[in-house]
Amino acid sequence: MNFFWTKSDFDAWTNEAGLSDDEDIYCLDINEAIVESYKIFKLKQKVLS
Q: Does the pTM exceed 0.85?
């Protein structure tokens, strides 16, 4: 995972890398990223408040 301060930073990075049309590259907010990281690493998910 890569982390960006803003959506604009993410868009600039994907454009510079030639990945702006790649459907496998997408932006998640921090809560979504945490949930996905638990799935990726097969950890037992904790309830976040």
A: no
pLDDT of 11-46, one tens digit each?
Answer: 999 999 998 888 888 888 889 988 888 888 887 766
The total domain count for the chain is: 1
pLDDT of residue 5: 85
Residue written as token pair 């510079």: 16
DSSP structure string for 1-49: ----SSHHHHHHHHHHTT-TT-TT-----HHHHHHHHHHHTTPPPPPP-
Residue 17 near residue 34, CB atoms below 8 Å: no
The residue segments making up the domain with residue 41 are 1-49
Q: Is 6 helix (H, G, I), strand (E, B) or coil?
A: coil
